[in-house]
Write a structure and sequence with these properties.
two-stranded antiparallel ribbon, 6 strands, 171 residues, 7 helices, alpha/beta, 4-stranded parallel β-sheet
Length: 171
């Protein structure tokens, strides 16, 4: 499911093409999970700021693939997997689909609610920006050559690419 789409004759507010060009986001898996829950009537959708611009278009895609399901999009900010839109549970939402963050199994027991975590792994090349960042850090630290790399879930799979680019710059 990617690219620009038209649903119910309504133009998209924001095309999903850039989302799927930049991120691996398994909407087919979300559809399968929802359809595999026969008693689900209402699904909440939660997005971090970087993905929220696509919320209404993702909702349209899911609604088309899962007839009869009501969707509620949380407009609240989301700062990680532990920051769930619990207010949607009070609205009667059966399932929360939390986009962009990796599941934290250590907290699942705290919520009496089914939460589906949908990672959004960044697909674009990070070598150029990593190398440029390493050069700038070296300049700012008068030739420093030791760097620690910390990242978020959507970039964790890019750590080796970042490290290789920085090693090529002498780090």
């Amino acid at each position: 499911m990617s690219g620009t789409r038209t649903y119910e004759g309504v133009e998209q507010r924001r095309a999903t093409g850039p989302l799927f060009e930049s991120y691996d986001c398994d909407l087919d898996g979300v559809v399968a999970k929802i359809l595999g829950r026969p008693n689900t009537k209402s699904v909440g959708l939660q997005f971090p700021d970087g993905l929220r611009d696509y919320a209404t278009e993702i909702e349209k895609i899911l609604r088309k693939e899962t007839p009869g399901i009501e969707y509620v999009i949380s407009a609240d900010p989301s700062y990680g997997a532990c920051d769930l839109a619990l207010n949607l549970q009070r609205l009667g939402v059966d399932l929360l689909v939390h986009f962009g963050h990796t599941e934290m199994p250590s907290i699942n027991h705290l919520f009496q609610w089914d939460v589906l975590y949908v990672s959004a792994r960044h697909k674009l090349d990070v070598a150029t920006v990593s190398a440029a960042g390493a050069r700038k850090l070296s300049e700012l630290t008068q030739g420093g050559k030791r760097i620690g790399i910390v990242t978020t879930a959507q970039h964790a799979h890019k750590l080796q690419q970042m490290a290789d680019a920085m090693k090529a710059e002498g780090f």
